[in-house]
Amino acid sequence: MFNSLSDRLQDTFERLRGKGRLTEADINVAMREIRMALLEADVNYRVVKEFVARCKEKCLTAEVLSSLSPAQNVVKVVLDELTVLLGSTDSRLTLAQNRTPNVIMLVGLQGSGKTTAAAKLAYLLKGQGHSPLLAACDTHRPAAADQLETLGGEIGVPVFRGDGKDAVAVASGSIKEAVDRLCDIVIVDTAGRLQIDEEMMEEAVAIKQAVRPDQILMVVDAMTGQDIVNVVTEFANRVDFDGVIMSKLDGDARGGGALSVREVTGKPIKFVSMGEKPDSLEVFHPDRMAKRILGMGDVVGIIEQAQKVANEQQVADAERMLREGFTMDDLLSQMQQIRKMGGLQKLAGMIPGMERAMAQMPQAASDEQLTRIESIIRSMTKEERARPKIINGQRRRRIATGSGRSVQEVNQLIKQWDEMNKMMGKMKGMMQPGAAGKKNRRAMQQMMRNMGGGGRFPF
Amino acid sequence: MGLLDSLKVGLKRSREAINEIFYMGGEVDEDFWEDLEDTLVMGDMGAELALRVTDDLRDRAARENLTRAEQIRDALAQRLAAEFPEAARDPFTDVPSCVLFVGINGAGKTTTVGKLAGRAREAGLSCVIGGADTFRAAAIEQLQVWGERAGVEVITRERGADPASVCYDVVEAAEKRAVDLVLIDTAGRLHTSSDLMRELAKVVGVTRKRSSAPVSVVLVIDATTGQNGLNQAREFNDALELDGLIVTKLDGTAKGGIALAISSQLGLPIYRIGVGESLDDLQTFDALDFTRALVGEGM
């Protein structure tokens, strides 16, 4: 059983990769796999059918079949088609210039994450120098307004609740409130509704007419299955939205629904929502998403994430490490950095082939292992962390007891630290001026071999 | 509205889709089988299961000489119904009982707890609600509104309190008062977040240990969920050893095929299905009724 779309496609293409020349039958096998994989990723059945047909047509051209690396060309065709299907990067919110306040309205099914998305959007806009106001127009779900008020309080954005009964009146009232409070953007959070619920759909239309939003965003759960097509079609017909926020993409759902939404409604996906924290609303990048789906890794994403996390202090630390060697504290802070970036699992998911490699090695690094190492380091004294050389047998026993791990595990960690420290020393040698040349290249290659082969890293 | 009727309304769209195939003609041909497979896939049943089911049915049709679409429809309903395991006991009527509701964010846990409390009161059972969702903003307030509507006491603590200790308090209070049914709402979480799953395992562990009444852990799943639902259920099952499922939001156009996939692959019974907004729309699950309504039999 394949775990994900990337795994599945990778497997297919690995089989194709071995071939010098592809026949139509080979392409058919590949397309069948792609079809099944996309279906497993919840891409709508009709969308899959069209997509696969388009890809097949392109793959059957002489250019692809008779090229030197047909398999790679098939990959390219599928990737390009997927990127086209996902649309362009368009996360700008088009707001009327000469209108104050601007209005953004959120719609969607129950439980898709509208209220959370409203708070995240407010946080984002606030960071851009706007002064948003949240309007609690979900008058149906018990305590929905309380939820919005709490979230608003956490990010320092005012919330307008009105009388909490008539959603349309709350929406209109929020505009007046925004003028009084000098807020320049109103974010209207509405009640979740099924697309077949006539009364509720009418309410959404009534709110729309009352506040004439600049942008209507539909919040769509990334885990939604085949039905997503019916949902977005009906919402597009009735309320007509301008773009989509995909929520819950921090789970392991492949978000095949993103493809369906684009293909069926033509509306752009503007943001992806990746977690519980208010800053986890991210710009949607179709090319990255397509690559990620195809198992080609989201390398740009990793770099961006690293940049976000790294700060000047850490740059200074890196220099000190090279100068004075690597301490346990450095190891700890590196692990915390991995955590900040979303944990090993998330990072691994962005590196090509990494997810598969990790899945195949049961004793390979896991997030749990990180936690264990962290607990061992935390059981060391300041002095021990700075100079791990002083950790003798007695200290090892104490650290093991303190962290609830075995002495062997402590030994292993110290050994790993030792290896890393040696590596640091080598790097230092290489970086010294005037030492370039063959000898260093060899040393570098040796180091790479060490890294790839024997030594298992603590993370 | 009777059970069968509302099921039918809820599943109308899927039935229409399947009917399209069945009314294409009396004799079945290759296209029929392909369309059947596609329809099942469209119902979120999962490509793998859909293939298996159609292959099985094909054999059976050949063996029993079923050549007409209606015969196959009946065979299909039975075939699908056989995929659901039977529930050994109903944790909401076999009292005393303590039920924990788990699931991802937005699946409908809190609403389900509220409705079940209302049903329990109607049936004359004494009931308390435990609010162990101390994470989501206003989850406690939402539960309290439901508690008031149902006339059931809600035991909880302030936001941010340790959910395991809330459960301990709830079970303790319930036992002191000899309450029939304890319903505990937990915070929604994604199955991929290992820290939160561990927290939940602790909550379940504490409750199982403390409660003298049998404890059931029920996964609440949204019918609109796609194939990721299987991952969700698998992770929750691995971490918590689930007892069964409740499928919500079957009143939309979603076909809820994922429920079949989860139920059959993990061997979990479905205790209730939600087919509407009102209290009575949370119904007991009958496999054959469900699949009959799905394939449009007896219309």
Automatic annotation (TrEMBL), chain A:
Specify one Pfam family.
Answer: SRP54_N
Establish whether keyword Nucleotide-binding is in the entry: yes
Q: Which CDD domains match?
A: SRP_G (cd18539)
- Membrane spanning residue stretches: none
SMART domains xref list: AAA (SM00382), SRP54 (SM00962), SRP54_N (SM00963)
- The EC number(s) attached to this protein equal 3.6.5.4
Tell me the superkingdom of the source. Bacteria
Alphabetically sorted, this entry's keywords are: Cytoplasm, GTP-binding, Hydrolase, Nucleotide-binding, Ribonucleoprotein, RNA-binding, Signal recognition particle
Q: Which residues form the SRP54-type proteins GTP-binding domain?
A: 268-281
Stated family: Belongs to the GTP-binding SRP family. SRP54 subfamily.
| Comment block on domains | Composed of three domains: the N-terminal N domain, which is responsible for interactions with the ribosome, the central G domain, which binds GTP, and the C-terminal M domain, which binds the RNA and the signal sequence of the RNC.
Q: Which PANTHER family match?
A: SIGNAL RECOGNITION PARTICLE 54K PROTEIN SRP54, SIGNAL RECOGNITION PARTICLE SUBUNIT SRP54
Q: What does this protein do?
A: Involved in targeting and insertion of nascent membrane proteins into the cytoplasmic membrane. Binds to the hydrophobic signal sequence of the ribosome-nascent chain (RNC) as it emerges from the ribosomes. The SRP-RNC complex is then targeted to the cytoplasmic membrane where it interacts with the SRP receptor FtsY.
What protein name does the entry list? Signal recognition particle protein
From TrEMBL, chain B:
Supply the EC number(s).
3.6.5.4
Q: Which Pfam families match?
A: SRP54, SRP54_N
Q: Which SMART domains match?
A: AAA (SM00382), SRP54 (SM00962), SRP54_N (SM00963)
Which reaction(s) does the protein catalyse, per the Swiss-Prot or TrEMBL entry? GTP + H2O = GDP + phosphate + H(+)
Query: Where does the UniProt entry say this protein principally localizes?
Result: membrane
Q: Where can this protein be found?
A: Cell membrane; Cytoplasm
- Please provide the record's keywords in A-Z order: Cell membrane, Cytoplasm, GTP-binding, Hydrolase, Membrane, Nucleotide-binding, Receptor
Q: Which residues form the Signal recognition particle SRP54 helical bundle domain?
A: 7-84
InterPro entries on file = AAA+_ATPase, P-loop_NTPase, Signal_recog_particl_SRP54_hlx, SR_rcpt_FtsY, SRP/SRP_N, SRP54_GTPase_dom, SRP54_N_sf
Residues forming the AAA+ ATPase domain are 95-252
The positions annotated for binding GTP are 103-110, 185-189, 248-251
Q: Which residues form a coiled coil?
A: none
Q: How does it sit in the membrane?
A: Peripheral membrane protein
Give start and end of each SRP54-type proteins GTP-binding domain: 96-296
Mind telling me which SUPFAM superfamilies this protein's record contains?
Answer: Domain of the SRP/SRP receptor G-proteins (SSF47364), P-loop containing nucleoside triphosphate hydrolases (SSF52540)
Instruction: Provide the family line.
Output: Belongs to the GTP-binding SRP family. FtsY subfamily.
The entry describes its oligomerization and partners as: Part of the signal recognition particle protein translocation system, which is composed of SRP and FtsY.
What is the role of the protein in this entry? Involved in targeting and insertion of nascent membrane proteins into the cytoplasmic membrane. Acts as a receptor for the complex formed by the signal recognition particle (SRP) and the ribosome-nascent chain (RNC).
- Spell out the PANTHER family in the cross-references: SIGNAL RECOGNITION PARTICLE RECEPTOR SUBUNIT ALPHA
By what name is this protein known? Answer: Signal recognition particle receptor FtsY
Q: What is the organism field in this record?
A: Thermophilibacter gallinarum
